Amino acid sequence: MHNVVTIFRREFASYFATPLAFVFIVIFLVLAGLFAFYIGGFYERGQADLAPFFAYHPWLYLFLIPAISMRLWAEERKSGTIELLMTLPVTLWQAVLGKYLAAWAFAGVALALTFPMWITVNYLGDPDNGTILAAYIGSFLTAGGFLAIGVCISAATRNQVIAFIFTVAICFAFLLAGFALVLSLFEGWAPQPIIDAIASLSFLTHFNSISKGVIDLRDLLYFATVIAAWLVANAIVLELKKAD
Hints:
Layout: H1 2-15, H2 20-39, H3 51-54, H4 57-69, H5 74-79, H6 81-87, H7 92-112, H8 115-124, H9 129-155, H10 160-176, H11 180-184, H12 192-200, H13 203-211, H14 217-243
Helix pairs in contact: 1-7, 2-4, 2-7, 4-9, 4-10, 7-9, 7-14, 9-10, 9-13, 9-14, 13-14
């Protein structure tokens, strides 16, 4: 556990050693505000809630989270420091967890800095703060799911641009899985259980459920499974690359 904490601190501090952290945070806060106020009609709705604010989080994460994750392993492989990391007295899993948790914590910092929105909506009305808290949890879990995919893809290539593009594509597929247009492609020839299984893969399905204030164990298990599966894949990819 000590090694995980050490790697976590090293990676987390590295974000703030360059302007990357501040650029990401500013972009996220500005876009989240713009989507909520100008596209979501925050004031026009006349309701004291943050539904229009959280509704666009998965779509913001679709591009911003890959921008965080693309460098995690690709940069290590390109610079050759991954060999040095692997020679340190840390296991592969400790390195994977330390890097992943640092990136997730950084995304959490950006999300936490949106707290003025929560204060604002409480000033303007009497919102259901339990629902807002659940939406924050759902947003954080969604970011974690996207990051798990991103770190795995980053481990598979030295090129950060390729890592970014593939991560966006895979995350986009996970988002679209629950859309009626996608499901209609399987209707008529695929059994209903398969269609339901495809729909259950959608990040949006589970995010929307939590953001409504319903924290269902099935949704939590979904995010836990997605994160665990992609982190296992990350470790496997690194092991294969190390053997090359």
